[in-house]
Amino acid sequence: MPRFSLTLVLAFFFFKSYCFGALQYGFYDGKCGSSDVEDIVHGVVNSWCNIDPTRGFDVIDDAKAAVEAVCPGVVSCADIIVMATRDAVSFSGGGTYNVQTGRRDGLVSLASNVDLPPPFISVSDSIAAFAAKGLNVTDMVYLFGGHTVGVAHCSNFQDRLYNFNQTGGPDPAMDSLLLTTLRLRCPQNSSVNNTANLDQGLLSSTVVDTSFHQQRHSSD
Ligand code: HEM
């Protein structure tokens, strides 16, 4: 075999075995003895959802601790977040799907490196922010569907209820029923920073469905 071809064959097997960049289904199968990593994460998420589905990132810490107890130093937090999200979506009625794993955690975690759009960002600025991350408008609309569950603190939109753009009145573009509902939830000058559901549907605020998008559409 010519030397060039031999090099290619060797390179193929080298990269096939050590291709760290490629995610795959079942990446952890067999890497933790007889323990099933996805099952462990699933169990933690389910017990959290049964106790208090509104709780936050602590569930990731619990899942990480449960996985580390049987399989130390193997499973990344990045993968645990992806698996736990999949299970929370499924628990909330959003259907089931498989996820690829094999991510590595970063070695640096600094708040100063985080670049999140602010709550008051306009649609056009949001499109630009997503584009800067290589995501197009369709990606953005799909991802905004993540707001089908969860809450927003009154402090993040209080100005639109009472003093939009320093006018002393509400945002004129806001639906009047929504305005009334949100004002009840977020009284002016309240000392408590209440929350309001991101999905305003009475029966769907904790369900992963399309109602967030439907509400957006009907308000256009
Ligand atoms: C331009 C992009 C985005 C903006 C400006 C934005 C803005 C916000 C704001 C203001 C809140 C309320 C936070 C609070 O008051 O505690 C929120 C909550 C939330 N967002 Fe977004 N968001 C964006 C993108 C996304 C994406 C891409 C997802 C997921 C795919 C997402 C999922 C969520 C979830 C699940 C919550 C609820 C959190 C909770 O209940 O504690 N958001 N978002």
Automatic annotation (TrEMBL):
PROSITE patterns in the record: PEROXIDASE_4
Manner of cofactor binding, per the entry note: Binds 2 calcium ions per subunit. Binds 1 heme b (iron(II)-protoporphyrin IX) group per subunit.
UniProt-annotated binding residues for heme b: H147
Annotated residues for binding of Ca(2+): T148, D199, D209
Gene3D superfamilies on file: 1.10.520.10, Peroxidase, domain 2 (1.10.420.10)
EC number from the UniProt entry: 1.11.1.7
Domain Plant heme peroxidase family profile: 50-220
Catalytic activity: 2 a phenolic donor + H2O2 = 2 a phenolic radical donor + 2 H2O
Record keywords: Calcium, Disulfide bond, Heme, Hydrogen peroxide, Iron, Metal-binding, Oxidoreductase, Peroxidase, Secreted, Signal
Highest taxon in the source lineage: Eukaryota
One GO BP: hydrogen peroxide catabolic process
Enzyme class of the recorded protein, top EC level: oxidoreductase
Residue sites binding substrate per the record: P117
Necessary cofactors: Ca(2+); heme b
Function in brief: Removal of H(2)O(2), oxidation of toxic reductants, biosynthesis and degradation of lignin, suberization, auxin catabolism, response to environmental stresses such as wounding, pathogen attack and oxidative stress. These functions might be dependent on each isozyme/isoform in each plant tissue.
Family: Belongs to the peroxidase family.
UniProt xrefs under PANTHER family: PEROXIDASE, PTHR31517
Protein name as annotated: peroxidase
Native species: Heracleum sosnowskyi
Top-level taxonomy: Eukaryota, Viridiplantae, Streptophyta, Embryophyta, Tracheophyta
